Amino acid sequence: MKFWKVLLALVALVYLSVLAIVALSWMHHLKLSAEWKTVWSFELDPKAKVKPEAQNAALKKKLQELHPKGVYIMVDSAENRLYLKKDGQTIKEALVSTGSGVILVEPGGKRSWQFDTPKGEFFVKSKIQNPYWVKPDWAFIEENEPIPKKMEDRVEAGVLGDYALGFGQGYFIHGTLYTRLLGRNVTHGCVRVADKDLEEVFKASRIGTRIYIY
Amino acid sequence: MNIEKGKEMLPGGRSRWLKVVFSALLVVSFSFSLVSISSAQATRAKRAATTTAVNGSQVRRAAVPASPGKQKVSTTGQPGQKTQPASAPEKPAAASIKGIPEATLQVLKENRFLEEELKLAKTPQYYFVLNLKERTLELRARGMVLKSWKASELRYTGKPVPLQVTTLTNKTALNPPERKVLNPAEQQAEEARKAAEEKARQEQQKKKENGKKQEQSQAAATTPADTFDVEALEITDMPGSYELNFDDGLRIFVRSKSGFSEKFRQTRETLLWYTWYPVKHFLNRKSELRPQLILYFDNMRDAQGIYWAFIDGLKGIIWFP
What is the reported pTM? Predict the structure, then answer.
């Protein structure tokens, strides 16, 4: 009987000690959480002539000035959507195809290509109607065909649709014959759009129009 | 003899051990209450000091600089921040910060955020802004929001992250997506072998079924495009649960609530978060605790979208307005 009573007392003590540790831990945890809200730092210049409110307005203005003006294009490569925007308002939304992310390895392993659509800010560098595709080396390697030596053998008409907007390094926003694949990641890095949708984007944009791909 | 005496001294002596246990419980409870109250008071005092610093009526760990000019002030003076208290904390409170209204200090805080965002907005790469108060994660470029996700739940612990630009170093997931590798020569040989096998099989079938094969192939040809299994890395291949590691030691766990396994994982994490983590942090309170954040999303596609957009080297700001 005595043993059980001692055991009971010990269990009670252990239980309360654990409770105390948990309670203290929780207080510590709450304190840490509270610090997330209050920790910050700033520079204070007592002799500064610019008031914080004025500085705030100036900073916001600077940020606003960085926003794209007029028409710009946004491409969501995850959802395969293109948005044509004007002063922040969406004026056109279209289903597109973007990079497949596939890696192509040349037989022999000399060269390899990663078919990703580049992400970041770009500018329209060229506007082409009825574009021709000058097939790069990877297009032949992919088909397991010999790479031609003559430029004429690389040129293919019709596959890029009616319009193309170049945004550098060989990447284009162009039309497609494979409209069934719109909405999927199947391209070699370019952005494919249905010709009907691309016509509007093509007409609205000019050289220098910003493109945001994310 | 003694027992008898004891019996006389303490009526109901048989329950003496129960009284001992009861007394012990009382003593421990009393000490626990004392410790709790003192700890709570200490916490409250610390919080009050921070609040008063924000209110501007009193300054903790901020002091008048030796020479007039710009002084750097931190409301709590946490280590690891870019800006540190300008001078020794033992010095008297700064007259320059004293009396600044809370609204102004909030403006100063926003200015600090805007200064950091301006640095990022000047670059052509997009960046992220995680607002802990609103539980929103935004992808921005040039100060403009490209995409936004709202977390259904957000938790944070460990050393607070300073209001400054942080960089994503890597992403870790249990099943990270793998890029498909095309080797046309090998693939063509494989396709030729498969085609030969298929041709032989079809010929055999043709003999048996007399034309049924044609109907089947026609049906296959009319399969909708979006059901094709394309050789590509798509958003659906991205994981729904993963970890984002940043250069300042911050770890962000992204979780989606969809699926039984995810719900099970979330329950386990919630239990750990509210029981084991506080104890672990308390016991290791003198060591540097890595800041940790957990973001829960109701929709798995949101978590997958973040994995897609958060490329290594992506910069961003985490702040509590």
Answer: 0.73
